[in-house]
């Protein structure tokens, strides 16, 4: 079977790497791709924003499955147009993709069907946003309504920070925004496959959004992740599936817009149980890298079953009983500014695997702000080995140069991570 993979980042590199392992695969095409993806796929000279050209390519190359990695093509309706010619697609249609395309849409759906989430207020004006701050105490969360690649959220710890974030958001005129209460507790990411009716949990992960040491600074698209999410116990996962994901899938099906693909539920594990922070309508990046490192099945068969409405016919997805860790190394001033660097094959070290991150989608080696993603599986699932096993295998670098969020005391009971030296891995 020939497959078209849409996307150009670390997520798509991980998907290409896993898809290429399937005996069912004929030729894997990727558009626009990147140098890492080119190791596992044929890079197609195709502008995927041109849906007519994409349809022509699919017909000409007898594509049997289209896998759409990023959110933008999904929100733009590419999946709908491909399904219209009878080709299976892994990824939701335009209406279902509003779960990520509009935070207000998702919050309203949660309120309508009783899904636990933070209290919220929708507004299109700066004055309205400022007026609602009194309802949320000393801290709140300000979110731009549309797609923001994981960077459109400000967690304000004080009233002054909230006012500054609102001023910045409305600096160029009216926009849609969601202001919501700040939830407390550990975060976890739960991934769920859905064919529109049936659902199946597809692993968990925890990512680190803030750019700075000690979980400080602005949110990013993700500075690293590990899987499984230690705090998401089996009981909490079942609650999240039953109280959050299942009602969402049922609501979309009832509206005539069935959800087909992977649903990424960002969860806050509060004292009252799991609550939804937000949905993404695709695999996360960098979470996909650690999920693919642990997934023990045939990804082609799994994604095709989802696309064809046969998910219930498959056994539950199986994962290796190991921990996987990925760390992202970024250019200076990320995420506010970008920088170009060149692909260098010397940076394959320590037996790990690069999962390339090319935010600009260039296949010629140019790269932007998020420079490298390094993924590795290994180690134990107990608390002591949760980060230590995978982190130790990344390289032979100095422990004291590991980013703080992946560093812990050396005591095994506290889950020490060691062995990554970013300065040795960056180009230069």
- Count of individual beta strands: 21
Oligomer: single chain
Which stretches are poorly predicted, pLDDT < 50 over at least 5 residues? 338-352, 356-371, 383-428
Our measurement of the CA-to-CA distance between the termini, rounded to an integer number of angstroms, reads: 41 Å
- The biggest beta sheet, please? 8 strands, antiparallel
Overall geometric form = globular
Q: For the largest sheet, list the strands in their spatial order.
A: 16-15-10-11-14-17-21-19
Mean pLDDT: 82
Rounded radius of gyration (Å): 21 Å
* Helix/strand structural class: alpha+beta
Helix content: 25-40%
β content, as a range?
25-35%
In DSSP terms (H or I, runs of 4 or more residues), the helix count works out at 13
Break the fold down into its secondary structure elements and pairings.
Blueprint: E1 2-7, H1 10-19, E2 28-32, E3 42-43, H2 51-60, E4 63-68, H3 71-75, H4 78-83, E5 89-90, H5 98-101, H6 103-113, E6 120-123, H7 126-131, E7 140-144, E8 153-156, H8 159-169, E9 177-181, E10 187-195, E11 199-207, E12 210-212, E13 216-219, E14 224-227, H9 234-254, E15 260-270, E16 273-280, H10 287-294, H11 299-307, E17 324-330, E18 341-342, E19 353-354, E20 366-367, E21 370-377, H12 388-392, H13 422-425
Parallel strand pairs: 1-2, 1-4, 2-3, 4-5
Antiparallel strand pairs: 6-9, 7-8, 7-9, 10-11, 10-15, 11-14, 12-13, 14-17, 15-16, 17-21, 18-20, 19-21
